[in-house]
Design a protein that fits this description.
The chain is of the alpha+beta class. The chain contains 6 helices and 9 strands.
Length: 181
């Protein structure tokens, strides 16, 4: 049986309502759980970028890519392993302000993990951490072990490929050349 691993799927589409629903339906039909999802404008005007992570087999991720690209408003879909991309996430933690004042270990953990305190008031301190999933979860676990975490939020993954150019731009240029050809 083929091993499941974490894949990052980048999908580019025109900025049209309903595309996200079409894309997530592909995962639902194949009973693949989306681990994280981030949607934003891409560097190409009028094009949106969907960054989706999921655990599945390589055979399944190939099928997902193929099915996503069949959607009419999707320009391109590609899948990557962690070795192929540079990725980050952001997180916010709300921690007890009295605990910060009473326990120097809290500030030491924040500094050790390269996080920063972005707000402090009498009831809570807000801590921001950007990094890999592992970095963020390590900070959360260390602070949670002390019992000071009141809230925790983590963004979806954002990433860029390790290649020198945006593959979508090459694809669109080739498509334009064929059209005018």
């Amino acid at each position: 049986m083929e091993e499941q691993k974490l894949y990052t799927i980048l999908v580019y589409s025109e900025n049209i309502a309903g595309v996200l629903n079409q894309i997530t339906a592909v995962f639902t039909r194949r009973q693949v759980n989306i681990e994280s999802l981030n949607v934003c404008a891409s560097s190409t005007p009028g094009v949106h970028k969907y960054t989706i992570t999921c655990y599945c087999t390589e055979e399944m991720v190939k099928m997902l890519k193929k099915q996503i690209e069949k959607r009419i408003d999707v320009l391109q879909a590609r899948y990557y392993t962690d070795e192929d991309i540079f990725m980050l996430e952001s997180s916010l933690l709300k921690i007890s302000a009295p605990a910060v004042m009473e326990n120097s270990e809290v500030c030491r953990i924040v500094r050790h993990h390269g996080a920063r305190i972005v707000e402090v008031n009498p009831t809570y301190a807000a801590v921001e951490k950007t990094g890999t999933t592992e970095d963020i979860l390590s900070l959360y676990e260390a602070l949670n072990h002390l019992g000071v975490v009141r809230q925790f939020a983590r963004s979806g993954r954002i990433c860029i490929t390790r290649g020198t150019r945006e593959q979508l731009d090459d694809y669109l240029a080739e498509r334009e050349k064929e059209k005018n050809g």
